[in-house]
Amino acid sequence: MLEVIHLSKKYGKTLAADDIGFTVPDGRIGILLGPNGAGKSTVIKSIAGLLRFKGTIRIQGQDSHTMEAKRSFAYVPELPYMYEALTVREHLEFISRAYGIPLSEEEAASLLRRFELDDKQDKLGSELSKGMMQKVSICCALLVRPKVILLDEPMVGLDPAAIKELKAQILELKDQGATVLISTHMLEMVKELWDVTFVMDKGHILGTYAREALANEDLEDLYFSVTGQDRTREDGRQTWEQ
Question: Coil, strand or helix: which one is 28?
């Protein structure tokens, strides 16, 4: 379970997150949904322990700053970071040792194969494309076997096959009882995944919506209704305008 309680974060005089509160239970997929600049990444980075903040965050009932909480969760950032001198396989081994998690040859091979990295495992971090780095970051997060996993715009830069595989992995985590929180502005990527959605804009949670309570209402329609934004299409792609 993930609990965010009265979370606030300022950058100078700018209030990026204003008294944010929400809960994602075990075995549920939460979506933190909003346009660029809504404050989503601030919330995610606060949960991940990368920012100082006011308020309380609990992971599996433990304060997020404790080692017990940190062992329970994994984080896939929007911009993946790779060690330039480590190979893809060595990144997995590094995470395995850091978390004290045994890594068998079969498990490593299966994980790399699922994300089409089996023929890239000897490549150095400095040789990887953005998409490949994102795949390695996802593999490292899954290796932790997290009880809570945070994904910040995880599908940006991935090819269609990797997006399909990531969605399958997310649903597998849900079936295993894990808590999943995805931060995104890409409505079409999460339509079939979500259990509960938190619509965020300008540092505030505008509404919390459970899928089962909305009957057949479309997530896209809900978003634009709540935020009061208009839909336009340019070059066949959806954009959001205030």
Answer: coil
For 70, half-sphere exposure in the C-beta direction (CA atoms, 13 angstrom radius) is 10
- Encode pLDDT of 20-30 as tens digits: 999 999 999 99
Q: How far is CA 176 from the centre of its chain?
A: 17
Query: CATH says 2-79+147-241 is which class?
Result: alpha beta
- Residue written as token pair 């994994």: 74
Which of 90, 98, 29, 108 lies closest to 70, judged by CA? 98
15, two tokens: 């209030």
Q: Rounded mean pLDDT of 227-233?
A: 61
pLDDT in tens, 27-69: 999 999 988 888 998 999 999 999 999 999 999 999 999 999 9
24 within 8 A of 166, measured Cβ to Cβ: no
Of 194, 178, 187, 189, nearest to 231 (Cα)? 187
Phi-psi region of 47 (alpha: psi -120 to 50; beta: other; left: phi over 0): alpha
Report how far apart the first and last C-alpha atoms of the chain are (Å, whole number).
34
**Strand arrangement, sheet containing 62-63:** 14-24, 2-11, 54-59, 62-63
Distance from C-alpha of 202 to C-alpha of 23, rounded to nearest angstrom: 20
